[in-house]
Amino acid sequence: MPSSIVLVTEPEYRRGEMVFGSSSRFTFMPAPSDEAALVHAIAESGARHVIVGGQPYRAALYTALPRGSVIARFGVGHEWVDKGQATAAGLLCTNTPSVLDQSVAELTFLLISAAARRLTAIAGAMRDGQWAPQLGVELRGKTLTIIGAGRIGQAVARIAKRGFEMRVVGCRRQGSTAPMPAGGEFDLVTDDLAEALRQADFVSLLIPGIPENAHFINRERLALLQPHAWLINTARGAVVDEGALYDALSEQRIGGAALDVFDREPYQPVDPRRDLRTLPNVILTPHVGSTTPEANRGMAERAVQNIVWAEEKSFDRMDLLNPDVLTNTT
Length: 330
Description:
alpha/beta; single chain; 5-stranded parallel beta sheet; 12 helices; Rossmann fold; 33% helix; 2 domains; globular
């Protein structure tokens, strides 16, 4: 019996090829990320499932696959997949939680450390032939506020607390019923966002890019930060108002920003007059939080496993993002 064909968008196929190329259960094929081209590839190949990255999928994909198929997100964020349309079409949507937590946490703390010691500025000066020491700070005893005390937030807190003896404040939404983080990594968990921002030396954003979090860090919340505080964003670019951030940075109302994610990727300034790349107190990386062999393998394996469970009808074991679909698949 021929194996089911699974299309994987090209960037994700390259990242997980060590897994996709060794499968005996499915035939994995690279495909374009663009929705129209991906839909054409589905029709040409007869693919049963797809594994996708961070492109928006808003229309044709949901009528191109048969009921019971999987749209597997290679990663955690899934705001680009329309779960409502998928559910109506009887398609199962999944993501890959937990397998990239350590990679994102390590990059987050790398950015915090680089900010504390002005690493990019002094390294750049050395490359230019300049001997230009800059005053840095020790992290021990400093306050790190983590907005989003989930799995990645807890991993960042563990590094900060155990490795650097920082004071760690976890901030979650008012009225949240989620369990309090365990393990003693947080000195305080609060829903008082304003106070958590005011006392921070560093702020780490680790909240999802859902519509209600759009421009979560805005002009008013930036104004709560201390003049030396740094903002670290390894979550989603849309959670920060980049125009307001540029103004706060250029006017030196905050110490700096280290960003791995942006409103538009590859990065384009939201306003040509407010280009974050022109500022000396900014560290920018091109969305590499999960770009490690370990995370790539984990995401590929988890995406494949979700498809296996779907075909075995082990729906309770899947990382299912739209559980209501189960009433539409049979």
